[in-house]
């Protein structure tokens, strides 16, 4: 092979661009072998170059190896600099992106593959790639030093509860409590900050739902893939170039209620759809779930109030709906030591106005909290055995998990 591998791959890309042949793996291999200097290449080298050209033409190009790394959760591109997160924070890595124009073309190609538009007239795009990777892209001049790309990858196989225990995300004594919440069909929200592992934990908990039940997922972008034999998903749709065709989460929640859900799940509550979710959970749909951005459990009532106002639900009515519809909060956080289950709380009515209060049932490093007996009673009343952790005496008399 004459020249550097990059030059060889560039010639193959140009050969593909000069033909009308569909970009398939077989066509790319043929284009590689058509190069005069390819005669000295073995099969392994041909396939390696073909994979690279395929990534450059229809894939993630130089970012493909990072997205294929199972330890990578986030890939961030700031102009010509690349940062990755392998679960322990962001680190800059050396990736040959080429020029700023090359990065722009990469962003536009990835966005187009997801059926979205990215150009000077629409310089921001949020899309889901065919492999499930979530992409957000911003072009200059909106991106002052861009283009900027933010890619979040997802495991093709969700973690099991035992795997989360082995990784230290969930303490071993607490795992039966999470399983009990699912078995008792308690409605719960997984809360936490951005990138704290809300979707990961929700995926795991949905995998504990009995196989005789039907799970209906409603999401803005399809990210949940629980290991369960009966899962159907609904995904929101953005407007087309004419500004028409929007289908939002609120509409999807109403459609989901007609699909005979045993468990109704909203992947992320971020707007007026929270009103429809609460209404649905108040009509006999036990065991529903969702995620919500909140830095601490104490922030959840105010966060729900803000979202309820977007849906036209007054404060008092919102709190009454929450008390009737939701029972449990599962808080996760992300720190230097990874993603961790921080606490399990109950949502209770407090004070003369019966506003929602968040009371800890278990807190990492502190053990069983004031709502521990209340959670044990909820499980017992629904015929679920109380886990040993909740049968133990309150903190101060025993060790703390």
Automatic annotation (TrEMBL):
Annotated signal peptide: none
GO MF: ATP hydrolysis activity
Name the record gives this protein: Pilus assembly protein CpaF
Highest classification ranks of the organism: Bacteria, Bacillati, Actinomycetota, Actinomycetes, Micromonosporales
Domain of life, source organism: Bacteria
Ranges for domain Bacterial type II secretion system protein E: 59-318
Family annotation (SUPFAM superfamilies): P-loop containing nucleoside triphosphate hydrolases
Alphabetical list of CDD domains matching this protein: VirB11-like_ATPase
Family under the similarity heading: Belongs to the GSP E family.
PANTHER family found in the cross-reference section: TWITCHING MOTILITY PROTEIN PILT (PTHR30486), TYPE IV PILUS RETRACTATION ATPASE PILT (PTHR30486:SF6)
Family matches, as InterPro entries: P-loop_NTPase (IPR027417), T2SS/T4SS_dom (IPR001482), T4SS_GSP_E_ATPase (IPR050921), TadA-like_ATPase (IPR022399)
């Amino acid at each position: 092979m004459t020249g550097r591998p990059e030059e060889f791959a560039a010639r193959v890309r140009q050969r593909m661009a000069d033909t009308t042949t569909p970009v398939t793996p077989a066509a790319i291999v043929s284009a590689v072998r058509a190069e005069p200097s390819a005669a000295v290449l073995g099969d392994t080298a041909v396939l390696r170059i073909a994979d690279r050209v395929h990534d450059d033409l229809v894939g993630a190009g130089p970012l493909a190896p990072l997205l294929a790394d199972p330890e990578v959760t986030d890939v961030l591109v700031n102009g010509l600099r690349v940062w990755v997160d392998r679960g322990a924070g962001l680190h800059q890595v050396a990736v040959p992106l080429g020029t700023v124009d090359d990065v722009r073309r990469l962003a536009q190609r990835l966005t187009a593959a997801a059926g979205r538009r990215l150009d000077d007239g629409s310089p921001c795009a949020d899309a889901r790639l065919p492999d499930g990777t979530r992409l957000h892209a911003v072009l200059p001049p909106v991106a002052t030093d861009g283009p900027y790309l933010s890619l979040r990858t997802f495991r093709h196989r969700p973690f099991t509860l035992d795997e989360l225990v082995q990784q230290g995300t969930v303490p071993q004594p607490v795992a039966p409590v999470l399983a009990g919440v699912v078995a008792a069909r308690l409605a719960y929200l997984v809360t936490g900050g951005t990138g704290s592992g809300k979707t990961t934990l929700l995926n795991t908990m949905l995998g504990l739902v009995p196989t005789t039940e039907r799970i209906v997922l409603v999401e803005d972008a399809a990210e949940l893939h629980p290991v369960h034999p009966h899962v159907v998903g609904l995904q929101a749709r953005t407007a087309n170039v004419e500004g028409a065709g929007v289908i939002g989460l609120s509409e999807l929640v109403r459609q989901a209620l007609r699909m005979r859900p045993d468990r109704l799940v909203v992947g992320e509550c971020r707007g007026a759809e929270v009103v429809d979710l609460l209404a649905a959970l108040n009509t006999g749909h036990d065991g529903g779930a969702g995620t919500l951005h909140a830095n601490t459990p104490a922030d959840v009532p105010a966060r729900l109030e803000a979202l309820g106002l977007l849906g036209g639900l007054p404060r008092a009515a919102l709190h009454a709906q929450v008390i009737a519809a939701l029972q449990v909060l599962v808080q996760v956080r992300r720190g230097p030591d990874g993603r961790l289950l921080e606490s399990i709380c109950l949502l209770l009515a407090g004070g003369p106005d019966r506003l929602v209060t968040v009371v800890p049932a278990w807190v990492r490093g502190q053990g069983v909290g004031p709502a521990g007996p209340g959670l044990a009673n909820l499980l017992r009343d629904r015929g679920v055995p109380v886990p040993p952790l909740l049968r133990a005496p309150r903190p101060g008399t025993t060790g703390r998990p």
